[in-house]
């Protein structure tokens, strides 16, 4: 497995894929579209799909463009063979378990010949995981996403390459950490009270001391060709 070191989600994708200018990219589980906009700024033509976000008109960004469509991963409103790259970045484990097989089938359907499927998933380990697991333990759903890749993605592609990187997380204090976690509640199933629990505050302080303010999250990349 190739270790890419510490880098952003965008830089890890570019290190794995290469230049994206001119590529048609599907960003599955795009949220508010931060990655879609960043890829568009690199020259890609990006369509983000998310079941919870309001659709947008296509907008220019740098030399590319982006838009969001409201759709689940297993029912993409896109034609066959319409994308060069399908990307799941920290989103595959959010796909319901009974929809994972359909999501992998849809990813293959919308890819053009020679297209690639890029999946970046957080591992259930590291300093950040040790804190967050107290109020939002994703170990089970991440394992389900991994199993779906092995069962439903690998047989549909000719080759799989793997890599890893570290998603850098920095929080100056617990209040900053809590505010950022609370802002993500609408995409996850926890409460503000759970984030602010004394046990979470204590583990944050312990982890902060042990790792000198570095709350990094290890990530695995699976790239299917």
- How would you characterize the largest beta sheet? 9 strands, mixed
What share of residues is helical?
A: 25-40%
Strand order of the largest sheet: 1-8-9-7-6-2-3-5-4
Secondary-structure class: alpha/beta
Output the number of helix runs. 8
| Number of DSSP strand runs | 9
Average pLDDT number: 95
Instruction: Determine the CATH topology.
Output: Rossmann fold
CATH superfamily: Vaccinia Virus protein VP39
Low-confidence segments: none
Shape: globular
Number of domains: 1
Round the Cα radius of gyration to an integer and report it: 18 Å
Distance from N terminus to C terminus (CA atoms, Å) equals 16 Å
Estimate what percentage of residues fall within beta strands. 25-35%
Please provide a written account of the structure:
The structure is a single chain. The model has no long low-confidence stretch (mean pLDDT 95). The chain is α/β, with parallel strands linked by helices and 225 residues long. Helices cover 34% and strands 27% of the residues. Helix 3 (100-110) crosses helix 5 (139-153). It is globular and about 50 Å long. It starts with a strand and ends with a strand. A nine-stranded mixed β-sheet has the order 1-8-9-7-6-2-3-5-4. The longest helix has 15 residues, at 139-153. The protein has helices spanning 9-17, 34-41, 100-110, 127-132, 139-153, 174-183, 192-195, 198-211, and strands at residues 2-6, 24-28, 45-50, 59-61, 64-70, 83-89, 111-122, 160-167, 217-224. It has one domain: 3-Layer(aba) Sandwich (Rossmann fold), CATH 3.40.50.150. The chain has eight helices and nine strands.
């Amino acid at each position: 497995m190739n270790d890419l070191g510490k880098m952003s989600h965008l830089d890890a994708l570019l290190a794995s894929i290469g230049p994206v200018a001119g590529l048609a990219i599907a960003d599955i589980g795009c949220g508010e579209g931060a990655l879609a906009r960043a890829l568009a700024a690199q020259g890609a033509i990006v369509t983000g799909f998310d079941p919870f976000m309001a659709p947008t008109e296509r907008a220019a960004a740098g030399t590319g463009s982006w838009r969001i469509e409201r759709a689940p991963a297993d029912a993409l409103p896109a034609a066959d063979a319409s994308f060069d790259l399908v990307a799941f970045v920290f989103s595959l484990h959010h796909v319901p378990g009974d929809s994972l097989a359909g999501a992998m089938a849809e990813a293959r359907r919308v890819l053009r010949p020679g297209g690639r499927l890029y999946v970046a998933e957080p591992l259930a380990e590291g300093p950040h995981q040790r804190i967050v697991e107290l109020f939002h333990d994703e170990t089970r759903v991440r394992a389900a996403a991994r199993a779906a890749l092995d069962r439903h993605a690998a047989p549909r592609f000719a080759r799989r390459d793997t890599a890893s990187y570290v998603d850098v997380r920095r929080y100056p204090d617990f209040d900053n950490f809590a505010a950022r976690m609370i802002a993500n509640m609408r995409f996850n199933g926890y409460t503000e009270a759970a984030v602010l629990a004394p046990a979470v505050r204590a583990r944050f302080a312990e982890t902060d001391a042990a790792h000198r303010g570095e709350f990094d999250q290890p990530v695995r990349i699976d790239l299917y060709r």
